[in-house]
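A reminder from the course coordinator: this example appears on the midterm review sheet, so study it carefully.

Given structure:
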């Protein structure tokens, strides 16, 4: 009992098991679960969303201030973006390969009366322009992560360049960071309740659907998620991060379970930061790499898009050519930059991927009903990819520093 009380990871795991059991038992009381259990999950998610903006702003600022050197920020940024892009490209290739391999087992659903109101996907140049804020406060009010990162980078550079004269600001930022971190710690103590209340209604509503007609497509996506995690992340954290894969996945378990229940990378950010730091990632690196990853790195989403593209094409009786698949690799990698780390965002971006190879967007209607089940798995992979990057970049930076010292 004492062990359970002191171990948040164990509490979250128990909450997960309980939610599955209670959810399955409540499959006939979906309305009740949605009306009376889900709101507590929403309260918890709201609290996380409320804390995430100040945490991202102040932790990046603190990280930058303690780096003192502008070049170090650039070096971390470059490594992070290259790692994110490469792993996402690998993820989509795995998704497409697995889709092709399993295609024979996919159901061929009727496409004659499909209707899907596709939201206009944002063109890439607009995504680029939208990274830069035109107002200092709006990004904080709208929780626009990329813009908050840009603000933090500019203000951080400003503080570094002003030097000693900005010592007061430096101390204030560090103190504010400590305060917000404490608030986050308090909120995170509630995560087991959050997991239970978020997951129970989802299981109650979708439990039976898993065995439905889309089971093979879901299974293909989940097998691909697992392959990507076990092959790609195990290899990268071991070879470049110096961490054993077992230790990595064990340390990441609380954040992974939370991502599974909330389907939100942004909501999982605070817990992910804590897990990474416990695994030995540097505070300043984590503060930069994870918020960036929660917005631009979506390996799980990329896999889902690959599998769904193959499935939708096969329902329409279309065989994708190698060239079309290459187009999907490029579009899905870029689409992952524009995908917000919130539930359901990946499905909207699927429209962009389908359009790039001329597949009918209405096809999304075929998978929309079970999107949440795809989403839970893809979010787990999304945040695990971010964490692997934090560990790897931390270790690379440490090695570079040691090399510098020994010269
Ligand atoms: N829910 C995912 C996330 O937050 C995004 C997606 O819908 O694929 O990471």
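Designed residues:
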């Amino acid at each position: 009992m004492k062990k359970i009380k002191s171990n948040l990871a164990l509490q979250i795991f128990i909450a997960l098991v309980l939610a599955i059991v209670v959810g399955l038992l409540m499959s006939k009381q979906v309305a009740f679960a949605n009306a009376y259990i889900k709101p507590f999950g929403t309260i918890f998610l709201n609290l996380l969303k409320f804390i995430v903006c100040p945490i991202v702003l102040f932790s990046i600022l603190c990280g930058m201030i303690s780096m003192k050197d502008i070049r170090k920020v650039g070096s971390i940024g470059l490594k992070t973006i290259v790692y994110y892009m490469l792993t996402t490209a690998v993820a989509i290739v795995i998704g497409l390969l697995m889709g092709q391999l399993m295609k024979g087992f996919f159901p061929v659903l009727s496409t004659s009366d499909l209707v899907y109101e596709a939201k206009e996907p944002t063109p890439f140049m607009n995504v680029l322009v939208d990274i830069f804020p035109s107002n200092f406060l709006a990004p904080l009010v709208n929780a626009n992560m990329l813009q908050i990162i840009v603000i933090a980078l500019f203000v951080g550079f400003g503080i570094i360049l002003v030097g000693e004269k900005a010592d007061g600001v430096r101390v204030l930022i560090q103190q504010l960071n400590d305060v917000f971190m404490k608030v986050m710690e308090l909120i995170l103590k509630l995560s087991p309740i959050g997991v239970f209340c978020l997951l129970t209604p989802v299981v109650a509503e979708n439990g039976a659907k898993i065995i439905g007609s889309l089971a093979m497509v879901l299974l293909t996506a989940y097998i691909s998620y697992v392959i990507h995690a076990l092959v790609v992340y195990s290899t990268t954290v071991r070879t470049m991060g110096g961490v054993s894969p077992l230790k990595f996945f064990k340390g990441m378990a609380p954040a992974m379970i939370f991502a599974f229940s909330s389907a939100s990378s942004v909501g999982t950010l605070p817990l992910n930061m804590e897990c990474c730091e416990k695994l030995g990632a540097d505070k300043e690196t984590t503060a930069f790499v994870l918020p960036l990853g929660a917005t631009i790195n979506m390996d799980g989403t990329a896999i889902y898009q690959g599998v769904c593209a193959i499935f939708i094409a096969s329902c329409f009786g279309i065989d994708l050519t190698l060239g079309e698949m290459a187009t999907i690799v490029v579009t899905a990698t870029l689409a992952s930059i524009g995908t917000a780390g919130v539930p359901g965002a990946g499905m909207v971006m699927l429209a962009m991927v389908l359009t790039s190879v001329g597949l009918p967007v209405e096809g999304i209607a075929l998978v929309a009903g079970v999107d949440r089940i795809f989403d839970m798995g893809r979010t787990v992979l999304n945040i695990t990819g971010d964490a692997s990057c934090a560990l790897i970049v931390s270790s690379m930076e440490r090695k570079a520093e040691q090399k510098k010292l020994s010269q």
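The chain has a mean pLDDT of 87. Residues 263-265, 298, 301, 339, 341-346, 375, 378-379, 382 surround aspartic acid (CB under 6 Å).
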